[in-house]
Design a protein that fits this description.
Shape of chain B: globular
Oligomer: heterodimer
Number of strands of chain A: 0
Strand content of chain B: under 5%
Number of helices of chain B: 13
Order of helices and strands of chain B: HHHHHHHHHHHHH
Largest sheet of chain B: none
Distance between the termini of chain A: 55 Å
Helix content of chain B: over 70%
Amino acid sequence: MTLLADIVTVLAGLAGAGFFTAGTLGLLRFPDLRSRLHALAKADSLGLGFVSLAVLVQADSAGTAAKVVLVWLLALAAAATSAYLLAGEERP
Amino acid sequence: MSPETTVGPLQLSLALALIVTAAATLYSRHRLTGVVLFLVFGVFLSIYWGVIGAPDVALAEAVIGTGVTGALFGYTATVMPRPAHDRRGSIARTIAGLAGGAGIGAGLGYFLTRAAAAPPGGSGEPVGLTGQATAAVPATGVEHPITGVLLNLRSYDTLMEMVVLLSAATVAVAFAPRSDAGSSTRGGAPASEQRGPAAPPIVRGFVSLVAPVVLLFAAWLLFAGSTQPGGAFQAGAALAAVMILVQTSGVGRLRIGPAMICLLLLGVLAFIAVGLGGLVLGDAWLLLRGEHAGTVTIALECILAVTIGASLAAVFLASAGRRR
């Protein structure tokens, strides 16, 4: 059971790092504001989700696991809101 | 109780990131970029305090140093007009600043490490300030040493901090524009203008979602303070953050009225009442000992948290009421 959790942690952590790298690449390389926001808000939220999953399977109690999920959900809401606000800067 | 201060790759890279973000903050071309970099600097600083074993300072830095100050800076950078002449530092000023900062930092570091490690005047126990504080904590009635020190062992300092906060809030409220501070019959500005520009629905929805969570977090910080990191100052700052969010997003409308002024005064008055109680019932002014010390400390902390939250929010509301 511990081995299974460790395997999930390593795989999900790697996937999270991959998505974060892709998001950062997009932020640096995409041409305009909205494409960059798309890379940042989508890829990084998914990356954070994978990192949360990696931490989640190592949690020793249900309370800790719930806190990790809550952190991810709040970060999702914050990323969506801030991306919306930044995109609104460009609205005519 | 004595966290072994090790210097590893994590500490070194964090320290380097702090210096780089500090320089980037000071030398950024746009004001808003500077504010965002200041927030990044605050995040690094909070992590650093956590890593070197000072979670209380890390929490205070995150909510007060970065959160509330960042909100004020962000407001200034986006709404306030840019000053007419923007003074850029010359090379000589930069060098002088670097030398002065390094000197002050080295001096402070030297004396602080001396104070923390010095034996207390020749007695047998080889402990510094940390040891003395930890030894005295059981008498304060709370388990967490920092709360015990702040609200009991050095309560005179904390009382004066509350007075400083009250003075700051008083000055800010005194200079607030009249239409914001006075009653609604005065001024005559239409309600929509008084409310400020309404934020988009998605932002209001986000604030409605997040505000209860932050309130819960503030309450947790307050009650966690007696046994683990947290306490009145951190909880008060989280409370202020809720008020600032609610106000700036247009979800609610906070007014600096009589109720707010009462909240501002409450903390200092309650603190003085506790001090007088010590004088009348106990041995000395502000001395809090005995079996009820813990209960009184927690009650005082609740009141202080509300006053700290109100004061920080009042400073922001008074400044943000001023429009271009």
